[in-house]
């Protein structure tokens, strides 16, 4: 049976360690720690070749099995290429199949 990564701090820590154990990852500074008996935080950076890195922060709810808040930023050297977060974006919307569309800024 496959373990659901958001069932506990230990399960999520194992999930993150497995994701980071890849040849494409040069190094990482991602830490997962408890915020309460039922919640946790994952935060840090993952470094790839060609100066690419991902900065991340996740707030985890193990009782509900959810990532309740998140932010991801992708950089090439010091240039931020793009980011994802859980805040509403004024120029983005979901269609009926939950595909993200970005409308042009007028």
Q: Could you explain the architecture of this structure?
A:
Strands 1, 2, 3, 4, 5 and 6 form a six-stranded antiparallel sheet that branches. Strands 7-8 form a two-stranded antiparallel ribbon. The longest helix has 12 residues, at 9-20. With 106 residues, the chain is mainly beta. The radius of gyration is 16 Å and the shape is globular. β7 (92-94) and β8 form a beta hairpin. Helix content is 11%, strand content 49%. The chain has one domain. Mean pLDDT is 85; it is low at 98-106.
Brief summary:
This protein is mainly beta and 106 residues long.
Beta-strand segment tally: 8
**Helix and strand pattern:** HEEEEEEEE
Radius of gyration: 16 Å
Shape descriptor reads globular
Strand content: over 45%
Give a quick account of the main beta sheet: strands, pairing sense, barrel closure. Answer: 6 strands, antiparallel
Helical fraction: 10-25%
The average pLDDT score comes to 85
Which key features would you list for this structure?
single chain; 106 residues; mainly beta; 6-stranded antiparallel beta sheet; two-stranded antiparallel ribbon; 1 helix; globular; disordered C terminus
Q: How is the topology of this model organized?
A:
Blueprint: H1 9-20, E1 25-28, E2 31-34, E3 39-48, E4 52-61, E5 66-76, E6 79-85, E7 92-94, E8 100-102
Antiparallel strand pairs: 1-3, 2-3, 3-4, 4-5, 5-6, 7-8
């Amino acid at each position: 049976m496959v373990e659901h990564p958001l069932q506990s701090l230990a399960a999520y820590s194992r999930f993150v360690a497995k994701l980071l154990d890849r040849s494409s990852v040069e190094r990482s500074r991602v830490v997962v720690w408890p915020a309460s008996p039922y919640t946790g935080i994952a935060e840090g950076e993952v470094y790839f070749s060609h100066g690419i890195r991902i900065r991340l922060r996740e707030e985890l709810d193990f009782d509900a099995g959810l990532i309740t808040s998140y932010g991801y930023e992708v950089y090439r050297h010091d240039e931020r290429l793009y980011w994802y977060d859980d805040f509403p974006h004024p120029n983005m919307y979901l269609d009926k199949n939950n595909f993200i569309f970005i409308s042009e800024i007028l």
